Every structure is written in structure tokens, then in C-alpha cells.
Amino acid sequence: MKPLATICILLLCFTAHGGENAAPSSHMVFDDNFDGDILINEVRVPKGGEAMYTYYETLGWRGGAAGYGGIQVHPRAHLYIFSIWDHKKHTAPIKAVHKGPDTITQKFGGEGTGLKSWNFKLGWKPDTWYTL
């Protein structure tokens, strides 16, 4: 069994709840103190583990401009989500330089400010490994 499969199963057992009306979510924030420019992770949602609105974070980072990416179970589709916060030390807002087909981007506020993107048409299937 892949180590990540074990992590995914454990995360399904221990979900974090941010508030009374928050959907279950799992967050994988790794210590990425190494030389490199790219973070990659794999995720698989076991069949039967797709609770409505559950979010599976596969990439997460903190710092001057924090962000996350992952997949979610949504009434419209199984979607991909990516969000990045504006950097704390300057006023230039984050903007999308490139986005894939059918990807929607929008500025957000509330828990800080930044840019969110999601794709409802790309989709994902349970019991399939995806690299993000």
C-alpha cells in the first residue's frame, strides 16, 4: 500500500472541523524546507469516502503568501480548488497569469485577500490516484 494511501485513510478518520457549519476537510501541510521550486503530491479518495462538501487538501503552504490546492466533493461535480493569499509584505494583488480550460478565477476576501480558482468540468473519480 502506498504511504499516501495510509495517510488518506487516516485523514478520512480524523477530519478537521472549522466551525459548526463547516464541511469536513483534511489538510496536508508538509515541511518544505528544501531546495526546489515545485511541490507535488498524490491523492486518492476511496470509493464510499466521498462525503458531500468534503475537501481534500493535497498541497498547502504558509508564509508571506500562503495557499492550498486540492479536490472537493460538491453538488455540481467533483472539483479542483486552488487558492493563494496576497503576500503580507506588499500591496500587489495575486493575479492569474495562466489558467486552464474551464477554470474559473475570482478574488476573495474574509480570511485575508487573494485569488481562488476552481474547475467543475475537469472532474475526478473515486479510487483513482491524482497528482497535484
Topology:
Blueprint: H1 3-13, E1 25-26, E2 42-43, E3 55-61, E4 67-73, E5 78-85, E6 104-108, E7 114-119, E8 130-131
Parallel strand pairs: 1-3
Antiparallel strand pairs: 2-8, 3-4, 4-5, 5-7, 6-7
Radius of gyration: 15 Å
**Strand order within the widest beta sheet:** 1-3-4-5-7-6
Q: Looking at the chains present, what oligomeric state does this protein adopt? A: single chain
Dominant shape: globular
Question: Would you kindly provide a written description of the structure presented here, covering whatever features stand out?
Answer:
This protein has one domain (3-131). The protein contains 1 helix and 8 strands; from the N terminus they run H-E-E-E-E-E-E-E-E. It has one helix at residues 3-13, and strands at residues 25-26, 42-43, 55-61, 67-73, 78-85, 104-108, 114-119, 130-131. It is mostly beta strands. Helices cover 8% and strands 30% of the residues.
Brief rundown of the structure:
With 132 residues, the protein is mainly β. It has one helix and eight strands, in the order αββββββββ.
List keywords for this structure.
132 residues; mainly beta; two-stranded antiparallel ribbon; 8 strands; 8% helix; 30% strand
